[in-house]
Amino acid sequence: MKRFFSVEDVINVYDIIKEAINLKKNPYCFQHIGKNKTIGLVFFNPSLRTRISCQKAAFNLGSNTWVLNIHRDSWNIEMKDGNVMKDTQEHLKEAISVMNLYCDILAVRTFPHLIDRDYDYNEVLFNKILSYSKVPVVNMESATLHPLQSLADVMTIAEFIPFFSKKKCKVVLSWAPHVKPLPHSVANSFSQWISKIEEIDLTITCPEQYDLYEEFSNGVYTTYNQNEAFLNADFIYAKNWSSYINYGKILCNNNDWMITERKMKITNKAKFMHCLPVRRNMVVEDSVLDSPNSIVLQQAENRIYASQIIFLKILQSLS
Amino acid sequence: MKRFFSVEDVINVYDIIKEAINLKKNPYCFQHIGKNKTIGLVFFNPSLRTRISCQKAAFNLGSNTWVLNIHRDSWNIEMKDGNVMKDTQEHLKEAISVMNLYCDILAVRTFPHLIDRDYDYNEVLFNKILSYSKVPVVNMESATLHPLQSLADVMTIAEFIPFFSKKKCKVVLSWAPHVKPLPHSVANSFSQWISKIEEIDLTITCPEQYDLYEEFSNGVYTTYNQNEAFLNADFIYAKNWSSYINYGKILCNNNDWMITERKMKITNKAKFMHCLPVRRNMVVEDSVLDSPNSIVLQQAENRIYASQIIFLKILQSLS
Amino acid sequence: MKRFFSVEDVINVYDIIKEAINLKKNPYCFQHIGKNKTIGLVFFNPSLRTRISCQKAAFNLGSNTWVLNIHRDSWNIEMKDGNVMKDTQEHLKEAISVMNLYCDILAVRTFPHLIDRDYDYNEVLFNKILSYSKVPVVNMESATLHPLQSLADVMTIAEFIPFFSKKKCKVVLSWAPHVKPLPHSVANSFSQWISKIEEIDLTITCPEQYDLYEEFSNGVYTTYNQNEAFLNADFIYAKNWSSYINYGKILCNNNDWMITERKMKITNKAKFMHCLPVRRNMVVEDSVLDSPNSIVLQQAENRIYASQIIFLKILQSLS
């Protein structure tokens, strides 16, 4: 693997899930591959899970990490080309090129601004980073995608439903209310990964005007009726996102969309999923999040092995 | 050892001090136990000594660490249960549960707010952390206690006075002036630890209305007369704290309480102790801090071995 | 080597350059020397290259690092002696003495304030740090010098021009415009290092009143005519600095001093050098920085081996 920007960089989704599950059973067995390797973790935005799970994944591989919080630890970065840099201290090109020199893999987080849809959906910033980088780049959440999260998510589903043995299951990605306009990356990426797994039947449910960008939800059944969606569901994945059509806007904040115990009863005793952090009693009721059917911590734990299998694949391709 | 919240989690104080002193002589001899272990260091508040000495202790054990500065690296944490999380991004329950997944020991620092005495003295926040955590938790200073500091402190005294051979010594914990209301944790914890060592005769001296909470200073002779206290002292431990009775208030800022060269002459050539950071010429005169009898750096050095023996005991109990 | 404050701490500049070049070929071969050693990296100011390249250098040696951002991770530091510390929380003396206890080498960055020339040029702050420290101190950029940068710079030149075989070359250090008053450390230090290498003929070019402090540019030909300087140059090192004579002031912001493609044509197909970060189209035109003759990334890469050879020399002298 030469980079990990999206599911498209994975040759076979089934295989990578199996390998991640195996790694979880024996996490320290590849330290000969990670030895003397350095993974640089660069954050343009805050992080808890991604920051620490990637460090843990690198430790498991016997690799070193460094962490750089752009804007706080270092300099103001110029993103545009050709400017006279009166107000910025370092151009992205130099920043990325230099960080390249000090690591074997460069993992980067850059959130969207949710203002200019074309800029975000063309992944202008991340594509620049990819073009400037000579070492493999790993997407720790870009403007439109969060593939490490999605790999952990499908791995978690695989641990519960043996879709490897062809058993079908119904997964619902449900929009839920929030006070701030949020990126689409978790939802986009989840939808994109699930579409590679035949045994999973995905339904998206959201208020009108909250449809996801069709490229990532291609062929997925979307309904504006949450109750209908929940019927017979095996997994409910809750997530807020801002509007794609009315880009970055909050068009609905209807509490009725919150995931409640009552709604979970419509389902087929569904497992509850969320990528975290989650706002309790806004996105989901306490009683759902705290119930035995909540598997949000399994998802969080699998973040380690999702990162680790990707780092491992890349390190193996280096040698 | 399954957790380290206070001295009460230590089976035998004499033994742990001896083991810490032995570890100092041979700090790298337990790397087979620390291998592939990860110690998470979580700071709700700033830190210099604790931050770095815990990292060094983990290095000595051959373990990895990650450091998370809550509020800065990650998200605003909700501390209350049942709230609709309009203003906070992640609940403490998820934050702790997730951090658990990425480490073998979770060490946490949370200062008191010094506003609500019951909240602080019931250790509401730290108890929540303990209840949410499935991995062993280490107290890197909570609302009322700082046991890693105290273990380093008694270890330092033990290096000077062989109380293992039953020699008695007099230790004075002296209040000293400060401009800001400070927590009681260092004083409480020191008093609590010393009370476990028969050979040490502790005297507390402070202005009226500055008595420590009796649970931690049970049976300790307290006097409002600093000069009387200093008479024949072998160790003077200086520390400011705010009032317990008039909770969190500064009732006295009398410079007369500063530890001076003149006062040290009353003592039995006492060693001068402080946990650092210390405000010079407010808490203590330069000439005392810079004298050969000042052992503040030995205390700081022993912070490594205090943390290391605790981490080691916990790691040993895991396997 | 017992400390690394400037080139004067290096016994033989030719030897250290050769050793750094050899280390680059085989960076992991000294891990037996770095094992169980800890390098503390202390930043009073922001950093990207220095921060990460020093971590990488330590990793290469098999050593641990901790990073402390003063003022952000820890406490406000008192720099003056004898003060009643009403507004500061910890004196530099304790901060340095304590950090000493937790590492084998202490690397420190402290920028000048560019207000009081005597304070800066007497290196008052760094000299205090040196005097307080019992472990070897490495200068990661002080008020007047940046020797790790300079070692990387001369190493880079050596990789292009075999001055070890007595071939002469012409190097030009050219002032260039900037919006903010910048330190002199990179320019001072570069000049000081180059002066130790007989085969390099250094010319400094800058506007009037921008002459560097003569101690560091002793015997170096300085001209206010940039075009004249560029004639037959083999290397152009661009750098802004504020005035030394009119201390810390910006006296000129003439765009004519920017390094352009047109000016590079005057040279002997010179390599373009800069320490980074660089403001594009202010200090240097895009087309020069992006040309094949730009060797700024080689300089940045060599920062690893400059730090690593210095850390190695110091660690070797410890045992």
TrEMBL record, chains A, B, C:
The residues covered by the Aspartate/ornithine carbamoyltransferase carbamoyl-P binding domain are 12-159
- UniProt pathway: Amino-acid biosynthesis; L-arginine biosynthesis
Question: What residue stretches are annotated with the Aspartate/ornithine carbamoyltransferase Asp/Orn-binding domain?
Answer: 186-310
| Keyword Transport assigned | no
Q: Which domain of life is it from?
A: Bacteria
Which positions in this protein are listed as binding carbamoyl phosphate? Answer: S47, L48, R49, T50, W75, R109, H146, P147, L148, Q149, C275, L276, R303
Matches recorded under Pfam families: OTCace, OTCace_N
Known EC number: 2.1.3.11
Reaction(s) catalysed by this chain, per the record, are: N(2)-succinyl-L-ornithine + carbamoyl phosphate = N(2)-succinyl-L-citrulline + phosphate + H(+)
The record's annotation in InterPro entries points to: ArgF'-like, Asp/Orn_carbamoyltranf_P-bd, Asp/Orn_carbamoylTrfase, Asp/Orn_carbamoylTrfase_sf, Asp_carbamoyltransf_Asp/Orn-bd
For this UniProt entry, which segments traverse the membrane? Answer: none
Identify the residues that bind N(2)-succinyl-L-ornithine: E141, H178, K239, R279
Q: What class of enzyme is it?
A: transferase
Ordered alphabetically, the record's keywords are: Amino-acid biosynthesis, Arginine biosynthesis, Transferase
Summarize subunit and interaction data from the UniProt record for this chain: Homotrimer.
Alphabetized HAMAP family for the sequence? SOTCase
- Record family assignment: Belongs to the aspartate/ornithine carbamoyltransferase superfamily. SOTCase family.
Q: In UniProt terms, what function does this protein have?
A: Catalyzes the transfer of the carbamoyl group from carbamoyl phosphate to the delta-amino group of N(2)-succinyl-L-ornithine to produce N(2)-succinyl-L-citrulline. Is essential for arginine biosynthesis.
Indicate what this protein is called per its UniProt record. Answer: N-succinylornithine carbamoyltransferase
Q: Which organism is it from?
A: Blattabacterium punctulatus
What gene does the UniProt entry assign to this protein?
Answer: argF'
